[in-house]
Design goal:
Length: 779
Amino acid sequence: MTDFSADSAEPSDAELIAAVRDGDTAAYALLYRGHVEAARRMTRTLVRDPADVEDLVAEAFAKLLATLEEGGGPESAFRPYLLTTIRRLFYDRTRKARRESVTDDPEAHDPGVPFVDTAVQGMEYSFVARAFARLPEHWQTVLWHTEVEGEAPADLAPMMGLTPNGVAAMAYRARERLRQNYLQEHIAADPADECRWSIERLGTHVRGGLSRRDSRRVEDHLDECRRCHLLFVELGEVNAGMREVLAGALLAASAGAYLGGSAGGSAGVVVSGLIRRLVRRRSVQAGAGGAVVAAAVAALAMVLTGQPTPVAEPPAARPVAPPPPVASVPPPPVVVVPPPSAPPSVAPPSPSAVAAEPTPSPTAVTMEARLEPVGTLVRGRPGVLALTVVHSGQPGGVGGGLAPPAPPDTGPLTAQVTLPGGVMLRAGPAGDGWTCAAARCTRSALDAGGTTRAYLPVTVSDTATDDAPRVRLTAPRARTVAATAPAGVRASGLPAAFAGTAPAALAVGGNSLLSCGDTSRTCPDARSGQREADNGDYHMTRYADQQAPAGYPYGAAVSGAAIPVRGKVLWAGLYWSGTGPRPNEPVARLRVPGTGGYVPVAATRVDTASGDDFGAVYQASAEVTALARGSRGGTWWVAVEREAFKGGYNAYAGWALILVADAGGPQRTVAVFDGFTPLSRGDSYSSPLWGAPGAASVGLVAWEGDRTLAGDRLLIGGTPVGGDNAASSRSDGTPPGWHTLGTDARTLSTRPRSPTLTATSTKDAWLLGPVALISPAPT
């Protein structure tokens, strides 16, 4: 049984719904108590008899309980789903009764509304509906309750599991994103490839919502593309008149998307009551203005239900007209709440039952929980959240005499994770016995004094919100505990490509793919490190090691590095980078030691950068764990086709391989952070990592570093790593002193005080690539 006592934090609707699906009827009692009055208010607009009101409300709660117990129903938007169920039940009863209302006063049913061009209004409101449907569910929820229900942030905060300020901030962001989505809906689909990036962000750009760098990129494209510039001017005109389009009917146009997932479907069961509410809310305005609003909402109703829906709002002095005859009631919409196979046996909870909900046992154990991003959650990148759970009880005493008994274990653990909009938890094992599915992770019981840690992999969309992730942890014999991550989604940083706790060891290596030309008399001495020179001193060309095994494409660049494997490979990542524009389909060919040929590896991610110090450069990467697993180490060979990189003075190209292996010994925390950050002269860059103080191994991959220029520094927790020339064109797995002319791939040691990375440049411009960190397991 989940602990929802007065001693615990007031749960949100999403948490209560999850508990109901786990069989907790006390959680449903809280949902009943929080929403029953709203259900009664809405039901009174449909029926007059108080007995019928209570009957409809009770039946709706019972049906929704059965739906939740079967695994269906909403995830967080409980109230709209409940109101939809009530209206469906009402229309079912009306259709079965076949009652008709006869009157000699046609105005009772058709008072008339001012003419509106429904073709234009229908198009605009369909844009609003689709824009609303693209919002995350929790943003839809906060807009519904604040704009349609008229609730204050303080009243909505407990249901959302946020503070009032948090609700107000979320509502502000939701309204702004709705406006941006609305503008974006005016743009035709399938733009040209060269326009796609800018077109996809044009609505946000018009609203001033892009970062400074992205805004400059869009503006540069608009300067060059007349077609996109005309589209930008058109969106500017739409934005100027958007207040008139969105005012009044903004949320009404989106009711269908909110309740049923589209502009149709379940919208029909809420539109008539919503229309009356919206028109009534604005009846205090001038008569002409109220008529315009009523006309706009009438057009909206046709968009949502697919047929004409008259709007009747009687004057304040007249009583409310009786319900319209069956013939004028819209047909029943698509069923939102599936009927149970048998009548539900559980009656809706009564107020007395709510008051009698159980309180936690005084012997319940105490847990502590922490939820933290591993590195940074970055928009458009996969990431990892670390969930740490501690059983605060101590094991039984030791020594002579009677030892106190050990506290009980927690019982099975359940973690309900609430993620920002646009962030999704990936299903599967999460380490230490944890398994995740949907937004829930489970594990077996935790003994007294024990600690467990789960690494939750997530995907983060380009439009993810910056809210902080939250978790609610429950167990049968423990008090419920909640935790909020110290940071949410960010626009930049170092996200984790891999993270875990294991007896891990780290191996890194790599080599050049562009080098000084063989026609230069000084090139051999420069490669061997016997001559001080850098890639700026040579016209860099394709490098093909004469010792490379055959089988790579003709004319390709190829090189090798001897990288050991100290146990079973847990994770492996291949990176290749160089000067030139991003290839359409970046592919490298990897020859694993002990195998008979080169295997094509298609890049799963490509990052690009440009600047006066670098020109155009890119980094391609792919996980190659499946290829590396089973290898005992040796010389790894990588080949990339000639056209992949652009040679010349100051050009570079190379590859790097990061291997994490289970080497036995003590448990260690390991994480690999993806990045491609340019550092021009005078630049500084910082990002959080993940680990604990103590002796640590750092895997560094960097590009375009010069051996003869110092001043490029890497610090972990304030402690320098690699001296005053961290990017010095050295890679593990190459001969001693070998000069890679722009490629760094090596393992370094340090004792950081905290897991924070800082990279700087004073003389030598360089690019920071992925970074790996293995440190003591944190407590």
